[in-house]
């Protein structure tokens, strides 16, 4: 059984884009006041300004969707696509934990699990095609940075 007919790759791209869009929407629902919450927190000197997160995540989400689609086109297995979906769920869960509930330590533990899931997807997608894996490297790097920032905020607050 395939995700969609292999004769309809544009539909598959739409499914990957839709899955990533749902992830982004869940995050945005819990980050309506994130800018003011973020600036009110004690932060390390290297913390980025709040306006930077929107453009970075928009770019990353496009790259994540395309990576998933490329891996699917290259024959990703059900297990690999399930792992891809799992990291999207973990991605969506972080914002409610951090901003919605203010559970900085729980969010930190969750982002470590997210990091491991992304790393596993990067490895799996590299096996399918270099482009699919490479597209996820900036995402892994950003989540690494976000984990360090999350830890700093948990320690300071």
TrEMBL record:
Recorded superkingdom: Bacteria
Q: Where in the cell is it found?
A: Membrane
Q: Does the keyword Transmembrane helix apply?
A: yes
**Membrane-topology annotation of the record:** Multi-pass membrane protein
The name of this protein is TspO/MBR-related protein
Family recorded in the similarity comment = Belongs to the TspO/BZRP family.
Q: Which UniProt keywords apply?
A: Membrane, Transmembrane, Transmembrane helix
Spans through the membrane: 12-32, 52-72, 81-99, 105-126, 133-156
Gene3D superfamilies, per the entry = TspO/MBR protein
Q: Which Pfam families match?
A: TspO_MBR
Looking at the keywords, is Ribonucleoprotein present? no
CDD domains in UniProt: TSPO_MBR
């Amino acid at each position: 059984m395939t995700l969609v007919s292999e004769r309809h790759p544009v539909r598959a791209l739409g499914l990957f884009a839709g899955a990533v869009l749902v992830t982004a929407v869940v995050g945005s629902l819990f980050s309506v006041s994130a800018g003011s919450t973020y600036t009110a927190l004690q932060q390390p000197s290297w913390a980025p300004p709040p306006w930077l997160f929107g453009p970075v995540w928009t770019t990353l989400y496009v790259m994540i969707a395309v990576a998933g689609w490329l891996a699917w086109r290259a024959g990703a297995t059900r297990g690999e696509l399930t792992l891809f979906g799992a990291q999207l769920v973990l991605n969506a869960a972080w914002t409610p934990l951090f901003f919605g509930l203010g559970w900085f330590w729980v969010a930190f533990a969750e982002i470590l699990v997210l990091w491991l899931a992304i790393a596993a997807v990067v490895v799996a997608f590299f096996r399918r095609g270099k482009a699919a894996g490479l597209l996820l490297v900036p995402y892994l790097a950003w989540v690494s940075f976000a984990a360090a920032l999350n830890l700093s905020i948990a320690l300071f607050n």
